[in-house]
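re: ur question from earlier - yeah i can do the single chain one, its not a big deal. heres the input i used so u can compare w yours
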Amino acid sequence: MPVKRPRSASRPEHPDDERVIIPAPRALPVAPPAKPVKAAYFNRELSWLAFNRRVLDQAQSERHPLLERVKFLAIFSSNLDEFFEIRVAGLIQQVDGEVAETSFDGLGAREQLRRIHSVVASLVESQYQCWHTQLVPALAREDIRFKSAPELTPGELRWVETYFREQVYPVLTPLAVDESHPFPQLGNKTLNIVVSLAAPDTPAAAAALVALLPVPRILPRLVRIDPAAAGPQQFIFLTEVIKLCAGAFFPGYEVRGAHAFRVTRNSELYIDDEESDNLLKKIEEELHQRRRGAAVRLEIENGVDDAIFTTLCEHLALSHEYVFRLEGPLNLLRLMSLGEIDRPDLKYPPFTPVNLSPLREPAHIFETLRSRDVLLHHPYDSFQPVVDFVEQAARDPQVFALKQTLYRTSGDSPVVRALMEASRNGKQVTALIELRARFDEANNIQWARQLEEAGVHVVYGLVSHKTHGKCSLVVRREDQALRHYAHLGTGNYNPGTARLYTDLSLFTARREIADDVAHLFNTLTGYSRSPSFQHLLVAPYTLQHRLLELIGRETDHAAAGRPGRILVKMNALVDKAVIDALYTASQAGVRIDLIIRGICCLVPGVRGLSENIRVRSLVGRFLEHARAFYFENHGAEPVLLAGSADWMPRNFLRRIEVVFPIVDPGHRRWMMDELFALELQDTENARELQADGGYLPVARAGGTPPFSAQNYFMASARQRTVAAEELA
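and the output i got, formated as tokens:
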């Protein structure tokens, strides 16, 4: 990673080309309030919905290429699914269990659900308006068209009917719903068609028969109409195909109506570690139960008969506030498949991460790390050196042991393959796999079994704590002694998401850090009631306490008239103790900038409470995922940290998290001059949090073009590639 920054035409000029001055928050006179100011907090769930609204904003924004806007709409839909599966499900359980406890912002579960319903209803309306009034017409102008059944030409109708007979009819099973046919158990987020039927000689006023058509996930939800035909690409949703041809399943009956619906269920895993002798087996059992969790949302096409609607709600035990009648296709996540269309003009310009780090030659990785640390910024820097680090350790005859955490990884993981290769090569290999990584449990169970079959010692971490820290440790014999090499990151060991998420990777052979990593692995695989770490901040042991100390030190400096400064970049800020400490720091005069992509429960800009705190969120082409922290520490070296932890109770108390120091002077300058400085100058992807909970675009000086930190980092990576090619 370069310390010296190449010029970029997309970046405003600065008087000092080698150092960018980080702008301070708007400074207001700091005066003690006339009376104590009551702390204020944003609700966690409503703050998350505000984040998802910012995702929806990207789908509505014409500054993104058209097919990328469609992807943002799909991501919004996926996010909302998970919100209901986990967060809403938990609140419903609190209401059902008559739990009186309120969140620290003062709202009880019932009131939170009421507010959530109001916000979600507005979001869903905006979601479908975006699809119908913005994206569908824009796609049609690009010869990508969506058709409903009535819009099909005779030739298209014949093609669709043939497709139904050959591809759909054989795999669907109609299910009657009456006294002799109990209501079936419908899987979580599966597509279903409810069909209203009548015999031809039955009076129109007679009660209709009801049947269901569950649609297996194997069938594509978007159907390309006659792909061999010339002209525009035309699509029809699978639901339209099935509704059009539903009569084929019920010969002798008249189809009075057919409507698609979808049930979202509680998908949280409930596992008492102390009651589970075999965690892997218990999680497998819970995964099967997940498909049968309590219903928490019903999405159904508008126009369904009231009697059928009531029947569905009764069988699902859902009250109407958890039902959404939709004007359009269900599960817009399925629009993600449009990204496969070969239209580069409708997508982001291609970007290839650069592999120009000092570790680009795998054979010399350990030699390089003996002389220097290496810090990478993904996805601008390639993830390949992380893979090379593990693969080289697997093949190096001087490596004796390899230890690795795995939280989420790819379906065909080169890291996992390297661990298995290392074991087969006779090395001692330990993999600490988090089986409870949400929605990746089944994938991780599969990897655990394959690793065990290859002889890897697989460990599942500590009881009641998810292992979320990102660590890899290599033990290598050199000159009759053993030396440790470590990789520490802010993101997962997943080459796929490493091309989409912004993260930091530190490689080091510094003894003081690597020894702490070794101690951490021993703690996780053995027993240690109160482990101590000299340089790492590890949750649940030292992380929260140390962060509060660092915030407190800045507060003391400011209260004594010395400069106090805190910079934070992360995904979420929820922990009340930390928020209160930041409020106290602000009142003392500490200048605080928080770059928080998602949830933020801190209220900025309140005079006498948080007037020196500025909060911004960046949502753009890449998912901002890195966690990095700066404390000025006046009179001594500033403290610069990075790691796996957001500032949330779960990260501090219920997870194994690892935050590590940035020691190398060049890396420290880069984090200040580039990472923090440029993201605080972003005026394209950034939105600033207001005291009323709204997010507004960051104001630009008159005539100043928008500036995107992500675009700058991509331009910088391309310039490094060009420079390397010229030197070659």
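The domain at 362-529 is CATH 3.30.870.10 (Endonuclease; Chain A). not sure if urs matches, ping me
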